[in-house]
Design a protein that fits this description.
- The protein contains four helices and six strands, in the order H-E-E-E-E-H-E-E-H-H.
- It is of the alpha+beta class.
- The protein has a single domain, classed as Alpha-Beta Complex (Aspartate Aminotransferase, domain 1), CATH 3.90.1150.
- Strand 5 and strand 6 form a beta hairpin.
- One of its GO terms (molecular function) is DNA binding.
Length: 117
């Protein structure tokens, strides 16, 4: 999944916003809360996709080759795909969609109503 594909997919989810921060990372939010990030760190480094996941998914995904706890976000159950082969595109989309749902579910009723969620 390219960064453009990632951005298009995240933008298709309900009530999302995008900011570029942390050294040109594409940061996706719902209700002001981050649910997914696509970053490209350092010269020659591959892009890396990170997302929030459930406790069970976090445990299972971290055992797979090419997937690691996300730097700075692991305590909140975030994983980072270390390379393009770590996960199929359809699975990335499913996990990012679930990340969106997890984060949106934690918003207040007022925030959800204001966002049409």
């Amino acid at each position: 999944m390219t960064r453009d594909d990632f951005d298009r997919f995240c933008g298709s989810l309900a009530a999302t916003t995008n900011v570029i921060q942390w050294g040109n990372a594409s940061v996706w939010k719902v209700g002001g809360k981050i649910f997914a990030i696509c970053s490209h760190w350092g010269a020659g480094e591959q892009q890396k996709i990170s997302f929030k996941c459930s406790d069970l998914s976090y445990t299972l995904l971290c055992e797979q080759e090419g997937i690691a706890p996300a730097p700075y976000l692991a305590r909140a159950k975030w994983v980072q795909l270390q390379n393009k082969r770590a996960m199929k595109v359809k699975d990335i989309k499913a996990y990012v969609e679930e990340a969106h749902r997890i984060v949106a579910a934690k918003l207040t009723k007022k925030q959800k109503a204001g966002l049409g969620l």
